[in-house]
Each structure stands twice: as C-alpha cells, then as structure tokens.
Amino acid sequence: QVQLVESGGGLVQPGGSLRLSCVASGSIFPINIMGWYRQALGKQRELVARISRAGTTNYADSVKGRFTISRDNAKNTVYLQMNSLKPEDTAVYFCNAGAAGQFWGQGTQVTVSS
Q1: How far is CA 111 from the centre of its chain?
Q2: Cβ-count burial of 38 within 10 angstroms (0-12 exposed, 13-18 middle, 19+ buried)?
Q3: Would you call 100 helix, strand, or coil by DSSP?
C-alpha cells in the first residue's frame, strides 16, 4: 500500500500562486507515475498533470504554461507549482500514484477568489 498526503492548498486571489506538495509513503517503491487531479464542485475529476520517475510530464491543456509539476524521488514527493491562478482553477486537488493510478490522497482545497 501507498499513502499519499497533500499539503499547500488555500485561498488565493486571481493571478496569484500556490505550491502543492504530496508525500508518498508505504511499502511499494519506486513509484513510476505520480500526478495531480482536481475535482470542482459538481464536475468530474480531471487530470491536471503527471510526471514519470524519469521526469517526463504531461499537462491538461487548461493549465499548460501556468502550472509546473516536478518531483523529488529521494523524498518521494511530487509538487505542483500553480501560477496565474484563475477562478476556474478552484477545486479539490488530489495526488495520485501507482502504475494503474490506484492510490489517491485525501485532497486539498484550492480556492481562487477575490
């Protein structure tokens, strides 16, 4: 099993920045794919970004150029740097890991509002 714990969410004004962190622990290492998903109220959960252990990344079109995913394999941690935040980025952000994406964190709320 893998446990994922997110941190870094909060309230930010439009145009602001936040950095999310997710620390993985447990008995299944190394983890190849780690990523971030988000779920806005009343909407389906969607992929934001993911990164392989080697550093290959992919992003949702809606966040390209604004968000950056990175990871520190030595710390079993994945990050999501979010810049130029928009109200439509408001959602609960979930960390995800595993070859089949089977492990989830509990989520951290990000609210973008003036």
Answers
A1: 14
A2: buried
A3: coil
- Residue 54 is predicted with a pLDDT of 93
Q: CA separation (Å) from 33 to 40, 52, 57?
A: 23, 5, 10
d(CA 89, CA 45): 12
Per-residue pLDDT tens over the stretch 2-42: 899 999 999 999 999 999 999 999 876 788 899 999 999 99
Give yes or no for a contact between 12 and 33, defined as CB atoms under 8 angstroms apart.
Answer: no
C-alpha distance from residue 24 to each of 4, 43, 64, 71 (Å): 5, 26, 25, 11
CB 17 within 8 A of CB 73: no
Strands 108-112, 103-104: parallel, antiparallel or unpaired by DSSP? unpaired
pLDDT at position 99: 79
pLDDT in tens, 94-110: 999 987 889 999 999 99
